[in-house]
Amino acid sequence: MSHIPTLCRDCGQSPAATPCQSCGSVRILAHPQLFTLTVAHIDCDAFYASVEKARNPALATRPVIIGGGARGVVTTACYIARLSGVHSAMPMFKARKLCPDATIIKPDMAAYADVARRLRNLMRTLTPLVQPLSIDEAALDLAGTEQLHNAPPAATLARFARQVEAGFGVTVSIGLAANRLLAKLAAGRDKPRGFAVLGDDAARLLAPEPVTLLPGVGPAQTRRLAALGLTRVGQLQKLTDREARTMLGDEGPLLAARARGEDARRVTPVTAAKSISAETTFTDDLSARPALEAHLWRLSERLAGRLRSSGHAACGVTLKLKTATFASRTRTQRLPQPTALPDTLFAAAQTLLAREADGTPFRLIGIGASGLAPLATADAGDLADPDAARRRARQGAIDGLRARFGDAVIGKGRGRLLS
Predict the structure, then answer these.
(1) The pLDDT value given to residue 257
(2) Which residue out of 137, 209, 243, 251 is catalytically annotated?
(3) Can you spell out the DSSP letters for 281-349?
(4) Which domains does the chain have, with CATH numbers?
(5) Which of 86, 178, 212, 413 is the most exposed, having the fewest neighbouring CB atoms within 10 Å of its CB?
(6) For 23-47, what is the mean pLDDT?
């Protein structure tokens, strides 16, 4: 390995052979561009389950499943449970059959969010260019940090992984590449406790992989590609823009570019939102509850959209009212789990409004998120709300239609009083 750069992930040395002469580790990275690539994707391994095992070391060697009750679904499963075939979104009853010895734990989103926050803070000591992508993953750009850390990005990232494992009891998988797409793909190549590098060799290494490897290629797209004889990434790589557009439509060239590992997106730091809300002032004062609810529904849709677009979910709901005499009323209700769905936001705010709509004329109504959580924690569903996942999928379809045809393309009856 002496002809290409190497790095021992466990001691940080550059060994000439495997195992490492300094510490005996066999976890040796070797790649021609190991010390020049700067874009990373960090993905925690079975994050929720890892947090639970860190909280209770007795679970370290046991299969652990995080999820709802008998009618709920699996939120995540540790890698031991995955060996039995358990996976995320699987019905809980099926997971229990596949892995009857598993310890079942109801999600503790507050605990997971706290660990995620501390992990992100640690990431920001590596570089200011940290873009959280979900509760347990982020993109980082470490360009220009060599002098700060007295080490190339690869060594800094390996040290970070050791710090996280020692300090949090959580393991991470890291992808290092020239852009965000390749870094994400690299992070998934060696899980768990992985560290993979994709450089100029990316197209060659990805060519034999199935097209499902590429972000955005779901079951429907896979079937469409298969009907055209396109089942491997390498086949997409060979398409010219003209061929890709003819075969796959306007999105074809972009898909072919992703297959070649091309991605111009920058790592964009996200500033944590302090509050997200929506409100409206009436032309004429309103006192009738149905009219107030019609406005509240529209505002709930607006708030839900703002939450989803910012990558957040609401932990609670705050109703804001202002009377005709400019007196303010604020009422708050905690939610059983974070949400970014308008129906759930509206239901909570509607309950609050029912207590205030006593004939008082109001000139303003608003709804806000009381406490924010990462969007990935939202609407997972449990025994008390087994339909949450379906409502989330339905809202995703509505969002897609509105993105293509405008907000007015689809609506619910609650808002008709305003039409």
Answers:
(1) 95
(2) 137
(3) EEEEEE--HHHHHHHHHHHHHHHHHHHHHHTEEEEEEEEEEEETT--EEEEEEEEEEEE--HHHHHHHH
(4) 31-200 (3.30.70.270), 204-259 (1.10.150.20), 277-418 (3.30.1490.100)
(5) 413
(6) 97
